[in-house]
Design brief:
- By secondary structure, the protein is an alpha+beta fold.
- The protein folds into 2 domains: about 140 residues, Cation-dependent Mannose-6-phosphate Receptor, Chain A (Distorted Sandwich); about 60 residues.
- The chain contains 3 helices and 11 strands; from the N terminus they run E-E-E-E-E-E-E-E-E-E-E-H-H-H.
- It has a 7-stranded mixed β-sheet with strand order 1-2-7-8-9-11-10, with no helix packed on it. It has a 4-stranded antiparallel β-sheet with strand order 3-4-5-6, with no helix packed on it.
- Strand 1 and strand 2 form a beta hairpin.
- Helix 2 crosses helix 3.
- It is elongated and about 95 Å long.
- The termini are far apart.
């Protein structure tokens, strides 16, 4: 069963259980996160070896993408650490993945949003925080991790910068255009209510046929007068109306 729990923080905080369908989230549905999966790779020299961390996150169940090697099939988040020795041999030393049935907290921020969840790594529970920010000039999300994964007492903090943290195009376009649309809708509704009320008052206790004829006549008169009204308004706006000048004119 899915549910949403709201808490007042910097933004709105939502708790979502079961597989995360982003379209059902009030916050996540506004962003492009359901269209992308993020992955990152970081290599560090750790003599006598070389250590590489692989990060992968596919937050929304709407987006389908193969899970990386060594990660569980039902993972929505996975971190894999791999060590390459100086003889060229490679070993996977750590795998930490979080299944889709984990609860996910979503917090909307001023410059994006943050998700947090908890997964089990061996006998320990690890808290993960992933922060999304928008970079609409990038085709894929860039992943960076803050702090060492081996610090078991601190949360795993991952930062994603890319298209996933950007608001949907329909959300951006709603502004002045949206207000104009609503104003037109309200104007039409108020006009319709006015015509119905005036028609009803005119016929009094007359028949339904009388009311319909009165309503049609008033509506027709209103529609036929609109072009002349619009022409008069445009004339006032463009021409500024007739100007008067005092004094005598030369003959």
């Amino acid at each position: 069963m899915k549910y949403v729990r709201c808490v007042l923080l910097t933004g709105a905080l939502f708790n979502i259980a079961a597989g995360l369908k982003c379209a059902d989230s009030k916050v996540l549905s506004r962003y492009k996160v359901s269209q992308h999966a993020a992955k990152g790779k970081f290599t560090e020299s750790t003599p006598p070896s070389e250590t590489t961390d692989f990060w992968w996150i596919n937050l929304c169940e709407e987006h389908s993408e193969p899970v990386p090697d060594k990660c569980k099939d039902d993972a929505m988040f996975c971190h894999r650490q791999q060590v390459k020795l100086d003889d060229g041999k490679e070993y996977v030393t750590q795998v930490f993945d979080v299944p889709r049935n984990q609860e996910v907290d979503v917090e909307e921020l001023r410059d994006g949003f943050q998700v947090s969840f908890t997964g089990k790594w061996g006998e320990r529970e690890r808290k993960v925080k992933v922060r999304y920010t928008c970079a609409d000039d990038k085709a894929e999300d860039e992943v960076s991790a803050e702090g060492a994964f081996g610090a078991h007492t601190t949360p795993v903090e991952v930062a994603l910068r890319g298209p996933s943290g950007c608001i949907q195009a329909t959300e951006k376009s709603s502004g002045i255009g949206g207000w104009i649309t609503w104003l037109v809708i309200y104007a039409v509704l108020l006009t319709l209510i006015y015509l119905l009320a005036k028609s009803y008052m005119s016929v009094g206790h007359g028949s339904m046929q009388d009311f319909r004829e009165e309503f049609v006549e008033r509506s027709t008169n209103l529609v036929s007068s609109l072009p002349e009204f619009a022409k008069e308004v445009m004339g006032k706006v463009v021409g500024g109306g007739p100007s008067s000048r005092g004094g005598y004119s030369a003959v």
